[in-house]
Specification:
Length: 224
């Protein structure tokens, strides 16, 4: 009863784990914590355009003028549509972040209010509230997939214990190792080096490429 809500912040939407009440097949009222449906990071402007944001600049957009849907990176979709927000990278980032934070805050506030109604039936008089979350933590939330959990109202003498935890994770993809043919010589290098030699194989490590007879090729050094 001391955990009013848990939110999982996903790439293109979020889920909330909270108390729900419904009537079962036997006609009795049931109540227990369940996972809700995914809620998108949705935004609509004053001209009827709508956007569904993600944790980066990939976006699903509805262009009200052409009455068409478009999906892709902000810059690409901006060229395909009449949506002004997509043509301004800085404003897009501001709106994207504020939309995600507001969507999560509004849903959590609603769930916590519902939780207050629920626990009052069991005689728990503590009032659960949405805590003030630091801007740094919200920035982490908007940048990474993660979990946000609240615990409140645990009696500790004459006081109550309240806290929240935010755990984020980020997947960093290692550069792929390319095995290619440079003239008569077999060479390998990181895929980020920018070489255009004919590719023969790809590897997950330099060791694997060397074992197949490829020789290392250093990336060109950018002038300072």
């Amino acid at each position: 009863m001391y955990i009013p809500a848990i939110a999982v912040i996903g790439y293109d939407g979020f889920y909330v784990y909270a108390e729900e009440e419904w009537t079962g097949a036997d006609g009795h009222t049931e109540q227990k914590p369940v996972w809700g449906a995914k809620k998108p990071y949705a935004y609509a402007d004053s001209t009827g355009n709508s956007l569904s944001f993600t944790l980066d600049d990939f976006v699903l957009a509805y262009d009200a003028i052409s009455r068409s849907w478009h999906e892709g990176l902000r810059a690409d979709v901006g060229q395909q549509t009449n949506i002004a927000l997509l043509k301004d990278a800085e404003r897009f980032e501001q709106v994207r972040r504020s939309t995600i934070v507001r969507a999560i805050e509004d849903e959590l506030a609603y769930r916590i209010n519902k939780h207050n109604e629920s626990v009052s039936r069991f005689g728990l008089s503590y009032t659960f509230t949405l805590p003030t979350i630091s801007q740094e933590d919200w920035n982490n939330t908007v940048d990474d997939v993660g979990v946000l959990a609240f615990i409140q109202g645990i009696p500790m003498g004459g006081k109550f214990y309240n806290n929240y935890a935010l755990g984020g994770s980020r997947l960093l993809k290692k550069p792929e190792i390319v095995g290619a043919r440079k003239g008569s010589m077999k060479v390998y290098y990181r895929s980020t080096c920018g070489f255009t030699y004919p590719v023969e194989e790809t590897f997950s490590s330099e060791k694997a490429a060397a074992q197949k007879g490829y020789m290392p090729l250093d990336c060109p050094v950018s002038p300072s």
